[in-house]
């Protein structure tokens, strides 16, 4: 089997966990983490090396993942036996007289991963190959204030349409959901814009109906995982995903791991306060970041400024009209991006992540919106010498990124990866 080559990316600096692995391999007497945890860390780093760099030999994977040649065999062989990875055709060795290397990559015939993106009023399902290819997409709408059983029926029908196209039983189902999520117990705690989902034990419901493992996480965290494995987060050890739309959310990747907080409660960025005694938020509090940096604020301002069709105003539209010479669009775009920058400044001052990937409405503004946000952040943040702050846009698209991230949650659970 021959593999197509892929662009090469660096895995970046070692995480604390990887330094612990290295210490153990060099004969250190102190065990800093358990062997099972080390195994999960190593598996995750080998898979990320494949995602970042494409098909690689065992020797290359050992070097990229920072493990020794003996360890790499123990990592990849079980995944070959489980048909997750497959060996390609042998290629000549770089070392004269050495054994020909056989590159490893994801098995195109491996079971796929079920993925669900659940947002207020819409359901999107698909199958995701280990390589990230998306197939069997199905979409449906539901009544956000309707009956729970009616929602479950729509969800089951939509997911069944997707899973029925799988050649073999998927590894499991990953759900990226809007709202406040208890990822430990598999429950949607509350969704202000879709009350029908509030309190829904979705993982238990889907496990009963499909007899497959199911994992659920907050929509922005799925975006983050999609960024890390397939997008601008490749090779990074620290970055944040920021999503704007009808609501505002985000997620953190810190020292090589997704930060979730207690029961998945971390990342409620939209409800961090940026304006004391500010406008009332959907959550019942005042001055949340969401009240000044999401579409409802933008459209209210557009109406106040007498924009034509203010309910259709988006960041992309503002960029287009500003480029066409509209002073009003240019000024509103500047205010909007400055409001988005306020929250990023707070993140930067608190966590010093330095890298931020934009999703949702503000990402629709493309490079111009990202550059305006970066400029505002640079003006507002207290910088350290040599510090560079990156604001980028995921050009893959929010839906595909979230679905790939949801699939990544399944793979992580299946392999007990540390992400």
Automatic annotation (TrEMBL):
Q: Where is this region: Disordered?
A: 1-23
Annotated InterPro entries: ATPase_NBD (IPR043129), ROK (IPR000600), WH-like_DNA-bd_sf (IPR036388), WH_DNA-bd_sf (IPR036390)
Q: Biased composition, Polar residues: where in the chain?
A: 1-16
So which domain of life are we looking at? Answer: Bacteria
Query: Pfam families given for it?
Result: ROK
Q: Which family does it belong to?
A: Belongs to the ROK (NagC/XylR) family.
Name used for this protein in its record: ROK family transcriptional regulator
Q: Which species is this record about?
A: Rhizobium lentis
């Amino acid at each position: 089997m021959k593999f197509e080559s892929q662009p090469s990316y660096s895995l970046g600096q070692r995480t604390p966990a990887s330094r612990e692995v290295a210490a153990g391999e060099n004969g250190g007497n102190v065990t800093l983490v358990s062997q099972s945890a080390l195994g999960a860390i190593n598996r995750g780093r080998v898979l990320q090396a494949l995602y970042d760099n494409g098909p690689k030999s065992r020797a290359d994977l050992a070097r990229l993942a920072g493990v020794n040649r003996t360890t790499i065999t123990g990592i990849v062989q079980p995944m070959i036996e489980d048909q997750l990875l497959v060996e390609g055709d042998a290629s000549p060795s770089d070392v004269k007289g050495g054994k020909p290397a056989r590159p490893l990559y994801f098995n195109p015939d491996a079971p796929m991963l079920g993925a669900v993106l659940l947002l207020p009023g819409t359901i999107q399902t698909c199958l995701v190959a280990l390589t990230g290819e998306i197939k069997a997409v199905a979409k449906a709408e539901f009544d956000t204030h309707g009956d729970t059983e009616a929602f479950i029926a729509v969800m089951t029908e939509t997911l069944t349409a997707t899973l029925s196209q799988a050649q073999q039983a998927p590894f499991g189902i990953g759900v990226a959901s809007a709202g406040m999520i208890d990822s430990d117990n598999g429950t949607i705690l509350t969704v202000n814009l879709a009350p029908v989902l509030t309190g829904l034990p979705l993982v238990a419901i889907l496990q009963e109906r499909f007899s497959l493992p199911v994992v659920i996480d907050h929509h922005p965290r799925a975006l983050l995982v999609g960024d890390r494995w397939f997008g601008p987060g490749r090779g990074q050890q620290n970055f944040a995903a920021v999503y704007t739309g009808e609501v505002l959310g985000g997620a953190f990747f810190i020292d090589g791991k997704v930060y979730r907080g207690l029961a998945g409660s971390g990342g409620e960025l939209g409800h961090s306060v940026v304006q004391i005694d500010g406008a009332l938020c959907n959550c019942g509090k005042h001055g949340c970041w969401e009240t000044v940096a999401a579409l409802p604020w933008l459209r209210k301002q557009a109406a106040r400024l007498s924009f034509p069709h203010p309910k259709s105003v988006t960041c992309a539209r503002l960029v287009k009209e500003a480029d066409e010479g509209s002073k009003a669009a240019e000024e509103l775009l500047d205010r909007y991006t400055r409001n988005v920058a306020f929250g990023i400044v707070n993140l930067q001052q608190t966590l010093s992540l330095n890298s931020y990937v934009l999703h949702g409405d503000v990402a629709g503004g493309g490079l111009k919106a990202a550059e305006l946000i970066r400029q505002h952040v640079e003006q507002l943040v207290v910088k350290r010498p040599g510090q560079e702050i990156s604001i980028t846009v995921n050009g893959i698209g929010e839906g595909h990124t979230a679905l790939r991230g949801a699939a990544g949650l399944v793979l992580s659970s299946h392999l007990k990866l540390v992400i």
